Amino acid sequence: MENWGWLKGTMSLQDGHTFKVLIVDDEDLTRVLLTQVLERLNLDNLVILLAEDGEEAIQIANEERPDLILLDVLLPKVNGYDVCRQVRLIPQYNPYIIILTARGHSGDRERAETIGANGFMTKPFNPSLLSQQVLQFVDKV
Prior knowledge:
Helices cover 39% and strands 19% of the residues. By secondary structure, it is α/β, with parallel strands linked by helices. It is globular.
C-alpha cells in the first residue's frame, strides 16, 4: 500500500508546523473511522498516513516521522507492541503513540506502558475520548 501520503483536513498549529498522524490498522473500516475522527477536528496542516501492517508502519515512521501514531496491536507481519518498541529505537524521534486494541486486559495496558506507549484505548474506541487525547497532544506541539 503506497498511498499513505494524502493531505487531509486542516489544523492550525502555532508555527505552521505540519501535523502528521500515522494510523496503523489492518482493518479498512477502522482506518476509515479513525481518519474521520481526525478530520472532524478541523486541524490545519493535518497529514494522515495509513499503514495496514506493522512492517509498513515502521517504514513510514522512519521516512515520515509522524507526530502521533494510532497503533493497533494485532497486525500482520509485525505486531503493534513490536512496532512501538522499534519506533522507540529510532534516533532523535519521539512520537506520541496511542495503542488501540480489542483486548482490554490490565496486562495489555501495562505492556503498552512498558514498551513506551503514551496512551492506551480499547476498541471499539470512543471517538470523543480519542478526540480529547489528540487535542491534548496537539496543544503541546
